[in-house]
Amino acid sequence: MASRIAVIAAHPDDEILGCGGTVARRSRAGDEVVTLIVAEGATSRDVARDPTARQRNVDALREAAGKANAALGVKALEFGGLPDNRLDSRDLLDVVKVIEVFIAKHRPQIVLTHFPGDLNIDHQIVSRAVSTACRPLPAARVSLMLFFEVPSSTEWQTNLAGGAFSPNWFEDISSTLPLKLEALRHYDAEMRPWPHPRSYQGVESLARWRGATIGRQAAEAFSLGRKLVPGDGYE
User: Fold this and answer.
1) pLDDT for residue 44 is more than 80
2) Burial of residue 52, with CB atoms counted within 10 A of its CB: 0-12 exposed, 13-18 middle, 19 or more buried
3) Which listed CATH number (3.30.450.20, 3.40.50.2300, 3.40.50.10320, 3.30.1330.10) goes with 4-227?
4) Confidence (pTM)
């Protein structure tokens, strides 16, 4: 039976870096994937001082996001428009409400989002807000919540912060890794030269390593947030 999957990411490119191969494979299998990008990804940059340049940057990122998500078969893409790397300046409730509206509209069974122990503050807040918006109330439909890793952010968190990413859920992306890398080409301005972890070689190397740990050619790794096994009366 096909599922509806929601990917909720902080910034444009996080959704592809974190779970692009899984999205492509699930879309091919008939699942319906929808994406929410919570923050606009530009206001923390130097060009933010020039409103016109900032808006051009925001528009370019949204265009890139549209092309990247379309390449993976995503059915709907929405933007929260909150400020980049400043989510900690907003009340958590503001972020939760953006996500709650999205969840209520699309009614996913599966949610993929950031690992809560990530180094990036926006990633942390989005993860926390998703957990709040997807809390298991009696009428809730979300039965599976998975936390993904983002190269150059998740692995850079120190042990002193606690809760290092330790994956216990793997998705085989052997057949869709090329699609993930192709989708990332739309975010070329966000990528970095090797040996930066957010380089094309770094992303592929991580996928190959995650695959090798489970005896596959390539994989994406997740930390299981919550799994609800439905019983009688669950819709």
Assistant:
1) no
2) exposed
3) 3.40.50.10320
4) 0.94
